Task: inverse folding
C-alpha cells in the first residue's frame, strides 16, 4: 500500500513543479533580413530615419559607427498604433486599466556578410504604463513585429521578406 501511495504522489509533484522549470519564450525577438546595400549606406539611411522628423518620430539615443549599432526611442505612440505594434499581457485586475504611457526602444545591429550587402537585425523593447485612478502598473510588452518590419523596409529590405 505504501508503494502505491508513493507512486501516485510522484506524478502530482512533477505536475506541480514542472512549470517552475519550464523555459519561457523570450519577450524580445529580433527580426533579421539581408539588405542588398553596403553597410555604411544602410547605417547612414537608418541614422537619417531616426533623426529626421519627416521620416519618423524617433529620438536617436546612440549611433555607434564602430559596432554599427543604432539605438532609438519613441514615446507617445498612441493607442491605435500601439495596438498594431505591441501586445501587453496583464493580470485579470489590470485588464480594466487604461494605457497611460507607452515607449519603445529599438536596437538595430548591422553586419557585413558581403561588400555589397548588409545583414540587419532589429529588436524592439516595448514598455507600457497602465493606470486606473492612482494605481499604475508598468508592463513589459511583446512585439507584433510590425514596427521591426517598418524599420527593415526603411533600411532597404524588400517588402514581404
Result:
Amino acid at each position: 500500500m505504501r508503494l502505491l501511495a508513493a507512486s501516485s504522489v510522484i506524478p502530482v509533484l512533477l505536475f506541480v513543479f514542472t512549470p517552475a522549470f519550464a523555459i519561457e519564450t523570450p519577450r524580445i525577438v529580433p527580426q533579421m533580413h539581408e539588405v542588398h546595400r553596403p553597410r555604411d549606406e544602410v547605417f547612414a539611411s537608418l541614422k537619417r530615419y531616426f533623426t529626421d522628423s519627416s521620416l519618423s518620430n524617433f529620438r536617436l539615443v546612440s549611433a555607434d559607427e564602430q559596432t554599427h549599432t543604432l539605438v532609438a526611442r519613441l514615446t507617445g505612440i498612441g493607442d491605435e498604433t500601439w495596438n498594431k505594434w505591441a501586445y501587453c499581457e496583464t493580470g485579470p485586475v489590470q485588464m480594466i486599466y487604461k494605457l497611460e504611457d507607452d515607449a519603445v526602444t529599438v536596437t538595430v545591429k548591422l553586419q557585413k556578410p558581403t561588400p555589397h550587402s548588409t545583414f540587419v537585425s532589429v529588436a524592439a523593447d516595448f514598455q507600457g504604463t497602465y493606470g486606473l485612478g492612482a494605481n499604475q502598473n508598468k508592463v513589459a510588452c511583446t512585439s507584433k513585429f510590425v514596427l521591426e518590419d517598418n524599420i527593415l523596409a526603411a533600411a532597404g529590405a524588400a517588402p514581404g521578406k
Notes: The longest helix spans residues 2-21. The first strand starts at residue 31 and ends at 35. Confidence is low (pLDDT under 50) at residues 1-7, 9-18.
